[in-house]
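The instructor's notes for this session suggest beginning with a concrete chain rather than abstract definitions. Hand out the sequence below and ask the class to guess, before any prediction is shown, which regions might be ordered.
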Amino acid sequence: MSNKTVGNPLDLRAWIDEVKHMGELTEVSGADWNLELGAISELNVKKDLPNALLFDDIPGYPQGHRVMTCSTSSPSRLSSILRLPIESTNGGLTQSLRGKPKQWQGQADQYPPVVVDQGPIFENVQSGDDVDVFAFPSPLWHELDGGRYIGTGCMVVTKDLDSEWVNVGTYRVMVHDRNHVGLDMVPGKHGAIQYDKYMKAGKPFPVAIVVGCDPLGYLISGIEVPFGMCEYNYIGAILKQPVSVVKGQLTGLPVPSGAEIVLEGWAHPNDERIEGPFGEFHGYYPGKPATAPVVTIERVYYRNNPIIMGSPPAKPPNDYSYSKAVMRSALLMDALIAAGVPDVQAVWAHEIGGARMFNVVSIQQRYAGHARQAGHILSQCGVGAYMSRYSVVVDEDIDPSNLQEVMWAIATRTDPSLDIDIIQRGMGSKNDPMSIAYTSKAPFTSKAVIDACRPYDFIKEFPAVAEASKELQEAVRAKWKHIL
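After discussion, reveal the predicted structure:
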């Protein structure tokens, strides 16, 4: 890290101003942190084009102590977060993302974060007996949750014991008391790997939890960045500018200089408490309360009028399911093309399956077996295999993101005995709500590939669609937009 270049502070407030200018921000006054705030957010994302929500005047808290939700829930806002041209459609955004993750990954080493001495995050500091996590309106998001979660749309910053590798991951953070929080990290994730090293060495694990910043921060912290790569570098490649960071006063861990709230402390060996339950991305509580590492918070930094960035999982569509759908759709499309599948028109990883369990690809059929090839690769490629359940292939006249059109194709272009392939003993997960019915001790599950394309051997004879052509639809929409 260097201090020779001016970096981007990942300032949430600059992004909020942009969203307000776009007309995609709704300010909400008076919602209670206890369930009400979460329910409003949950109902909001079920709308066709939900705005971002900024909650203020939260009962029991000073005016200006705010919570933001639904930040990534529209194509326009997600475009702005990813610094892409503003797109208003799923297909346009997915197309503009084609090849970008690979490009960003390849350029990441050119954008190490820049260390600065000061930033808005140091406007207020709590230390020692003054530390009080309850000073912030952490929501109780859902009725069955195990507690209040201050960390959902967060960035958890940690450091490898044996190297300079800094990892930034999105892990859930539950409030235990005024200076202790539970940190749930899935085994095998990079933060958990680093934590295990410290525990085996009998050393305290340094942690800095960024509770709010530009949503690009938690968006990238929640995707699969290669082992050993720092997410700050990846974010810098997207920004085409390094991230501006300050060092925590206790741990030295780098956090965005424009962050809203940062909790800093240590997870000590053998210090675990019951954490959860908390809902998962597929809409279920698959796990029971269990022990998880406890972070003792020794210092809290926060801006004047701080904002918690909330992004809780729930039954889809949930707060972040749209962004996951877009990102995974782009990755799946790149994977299909890299595998040699020709004439791929579009891919969509549907929110109803948590962007994993129900995926659709549209192709222009070129040869016998083309549709099956696309479906099996969609189901089994590296990006798509984990928890995939249904992989559907449709013709180029079907919008794969439009579930009405997809199900129409399944209903009218398939013969169930011929057009559904079942893959046995595929890659499952203990996080799968159906894992309760798995027949093996190992996480094996079956997967279905549905060929919902017109039968290739009868493609010329297949009945024409009773619908206005796309060109006519566009012309009529333009001329009659005051009606349509």
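Then share the key points. The chain has two domains: 12-309, 321-479. The CA atoms of residues 216 and 398 lie 31 Å apart.
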